[in-house]
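Today's session is about reading a structure prediction critically. Students often jump straight to the picture, but the first step is always the sequence itself: look for stretches that repeat, for charged clusters, for runs of hydrophobic residues. Only then move on to the predicted structure, which in these notes is written as discrete structure tokens rather than atom positions. Here is the chain we will use throughout the hour.
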Amino acid sequence: MRFRFDSDDMNRWVGFLACLFAIALVALEVMILKK
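Below is the predicted structure for this chain, in token form.
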């Protein structure tokens, strides 16, 4: 069973990682501002 990685999956993963990164940045800023 060969895993095929097409552009649609790539775009989905890139968008997912970008969302996680943005959420992490917001959480980090909130933690810094609340100190």
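Discussion point for the tutorial: The first helix runs from residue 7 to 34.
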